[in-house]
TrEMBL record:
An example Gene Ontology CC term for this record: extracellular space
A Pfam match: OLF
Keyword Cell inner membrane attached: no
InterPro entries recorded: Olfac-like_dom, Olfactomedin-like_domain, Quinoprotein_ADH-like_sf
PANTHER family in the cross-refs: OLFACTOMEDIN-4-LIKE, OLFACTOMEDIN-RELATED
Residue ranges of every copy of the Olfactomedin-like domain listed in the record: 181-449
Protein name listed in UniProt: Olfactomedin-4
Keywords from the named record: Secreted, Signal
Keyword S-adenosyl-L-methionine: no
Compartment(s): Secreted
Signal sequence interval, chain numbering: 1-16
Residue intervals passing through the bilayer: none
Length: 449
């Protein structure tokens, strides 16, 4: 009997098994152990688990792709919205913050301030005007040095000139009775609403203005103006000859300011004020102030140089109120204009108007970004700014005193309202009340009490 050696190799496990066989009836007979080729159950289960994990990952990926297809249109709309919101600030890129601050403009500006300060010094010499002229002379020399220097800070010089300009404006002649009637420089209290009334037309008129003639010793006349055409324009003002008539919305007269909403003399925005039976407002679609005398029906105009209009610098803070680029306010013997310019980087500029001649007599530049406030008003030559606290609360948080050039950022004077949006807020020196147009509601508050 012959013995044969059979060597079987299992490649998968790199193992070999030696088997001894015997020849029987011309055949080789051998016994094999099948354990070597047992079904790899453990490995199969492992592979099956991996397949399940892959299927799960594929399903999750498919879900993400599906959700992505839903979210992409929303993201596109958001990007378009961001683009639209950034559009008003394009000038910062196209014109630049610093391109406008070249040396020639700086020298021109310091010359204008020097002329103003010199004129004030001639009319009323004082230590303040003398010191101011010395500082301006020093600033001139520093700008001249900039022409020869490769390294200088234009922004710092611009800020310095803004402060010098405010001091020069303060030195200019302002009637003595203007200061004497303002016994309390900074407001310290605002009452709860003492008047709350819906406008006389309809609750849908959410933008407009109202108040009382702001001229001291003037006839008691109340007025109301509601904007139409997308809360943008108006061409009439509603007049009442008594408080009782106003509260009852009766015996009024609608005075026509312009023949149509699109007329060149029509009203744009909610910055209207009534002073000495004359309506002061932003002229339609221009950076100009119009005055309309109700008695004579005569209209005058004056241009606001570089003032941003058509929602370039509206009041914003919580949400922007369209067509509030220019705000008119009245005081003891003057009308004030509050606006913003590119040259002042969108910060608030305050100009004082002679109400009879309708010319600008003084201009101050603040550091307060106009889009960061809800509304403004003037009291005794002091600019106040408010910000949104909640739907039913507002807060006065800032003041700029034109007689000293001082900015106060620590105020906190909360007051109530009945709705979120403020279209107009103005102070009346006759009854020392604040008048607010609050999303169609007319509110009034006592101050200094």
């Amino acid at each position: 009997m012959l013995s044969y050696l059979l060597v079987l190799t299992v490649t998968a496990t790199v193992q070999a098994q030696r088997i001894t066989g015997e020849q029987k009836n011309d055949s080789c007979v051998c016994e094999l152990s099948s354990s070597l080729w047992a079904f790899p159950t453990v490995k199969f289960e492992g592979v099956a688990k991996q397949v399940q994990i892959c299927e799960k990952n594929l399903m999750e990926f498919h879900t993400k792709v599906k959700n992505g297809n839903v979210q992409l249109p929303k993201m596109e709309r958001t990007l378009k919205d961001i683009t639209a919101r950034l559009k008003p600030f394009e000038y910062l890129n196209t014109n630049g913050l610093y391109n406008a601050l070249h040396l020639q403009q700086l020298m021109k500006e310091v010359d204008e301030i020097y002329y103003t300060a010199s004129d004030a010094h001639k009319k009323s010499p004082s230590k303040e005007t003398n010191d101011l002229l010395k500082e301006l002379t020093k600033a001139k020399k520093e700008i001249q040095k900039m022409y020869k220097s490769d390294v200088f800070n234009l922004e710092t010089m611009k800020t310095r000139l803004r402060d010098l300009n405010n001091r020069a404006q303060t030195c200019k002649t302002i009637p003595e009775d203007f200061r004497s009637t303002c016994h309390q420089r900074i407001m310290s209290n605002i009452s709860s609403p003492v008047v709350t009334k819906l406008n006389s037309i309809h609750s849908s008129y959410i933008s407009g203005a109202w108040g009382r003639d702001a001229k001291l010793n003037s006839k008691e006349r109340y007025w109301e103006q509601c904007l139409v055409s997308g809360n943008k324009n108006g061409n009439t003002i509603r007049m009442y000859n008594s408080y009782e008539d106003f509260m009852a919305s009766k015996n009024y007269k609608d005075e026509q300011i312009a023949s149509s909403y699109s007329h060149t003399n029509a009203v744009q925005g909610s910055g209207t004020i009534l002073y000495d039976n004359t309506v002061f407002y932003q002229c339609h679609n221009t950076a100009e102030i119009c005055s309309f005398n109700i008695t004579t029906k005569a209209t005058k105009r004056v241009k606001l140089d570089d003032a941003g209009i058509n929602n370039k610098f509206p009041f914003c803070y919580y949400s922007c109120r369209d067509w509030t680029d220019i705000d008119l306010e009245a005081d003891q013997d003057a009308v004030w204009v509050i606006y913003a310019t590119e040259e002042n980087h969108g910060n608030i500029v305050v100009s004082r108007l002679d109400p009879l001649e309708l010319n600008i007599t003084h201009t101050w530049k603040t550091h307060l970004f106009k889009r960061s406030v809800t509304s403004t008003f003037m009291v005794c030559g002091v600019l106040y700014a408010t910000r949104y606290v909640g739907t039913y609360q507002e807060e006065v948080f800032y003041a700029f005193d034109t007689t000293t050039g001082q900015e106060i950022n620590t105020l906190s004077l909360p007051f109530e309202k009945v709705s979120a949006g403020i279209a107009n807020l103005n102070y009346n020196p006759v009854d020392r009340r604040l008048y607010m147009y609050n999303d169609g509601y007319l509110l009034a508050y006592n101050t200094f009490n």
